[in-house]
Task: structure prediction
Amino acid sequence: MVKLSCTNHALKRARQRQHWPKRTTERMLERVFYAGVGPLDCPRRLRDYLNDHDRPEAPATLRVYGEHLYIFTRPEPDELALVTVYVLPGEYRSLARIAQREHHALAA
Result:
């Protein structure tokens, strides 16, 4: 199992964009990472948007959970750190809901 952590920047962005206090953000990390949807599970338009946020110089692990995009990096081989949180643009929110519904239907 991978250790999950949060950067100070991610805590600020979660507070700003989701109104989550520090404790809530830390509590939700596992849920976001494991229940969130990765780019490969998303429809093509949403996947293209997500791939625009992945930088080759700093490879990231992307997750969509709810109406937000969470970006994780690997500071250590056995650790993932949440770096920032973005609100998905309105045009991608319905695609995110569809992807999450299909992902959870396959998991059940």
